[in-house]
Amino acid sequence: MQKISSLLFLLFILQQGFAQTDAKPAATDFSSYGGKVSVGISILDGVGVPARLYRNNSVFELGAYSAGILLEDFDPNNSPVIVSAPMFGAGYSYFGNKFLKAKRKRNKIKSHGIALRVNQIVGQYRTTVPSLSWAQEIFREGRTNRSFLFELGIQYGFPNYSYNGTIPDSSVGIRLRCQWNLFLK
To answer: Beta strands 146-159 and 127-140: pairing type?
Structure first.
């Protein structure tokens, strides 16, 4: 029941984000911001390099990352261990229209959206991690070929390995991701 209420709360927050935009009139054209293809550096949800393909308001992404995994066997004599493992990810994001957010120092061009992702940790600690997130892409005014992406949501981990003879339980977690993109064209 707690998982369902967490999902409903996230969907409510996403809906509120789409309903409340402090946008200036839609007559302003922000089509020069961004491009069709970008590469970036991503942190917090694994450290790695994603490549993104933009089609109107839809974004498709593939990436290679290094993920951290916390291993614990619930034996009081053993302390938890953090290991690193390779991870591959695929995702789809849908963004609304870009709008101008006036700031005191620098104006920013923003766009809110929803991101669906599936990450697969490979190797000894195979785990599948689907996620649903609210996403925000931000451009500084005048910098049309660089953006910052922030994602906040929930994820669910399905471990496909055993540690000290036991298979870890599936788990729900909060997903945070920061990404810096450079548009190639």
So the answer is: antiparallel
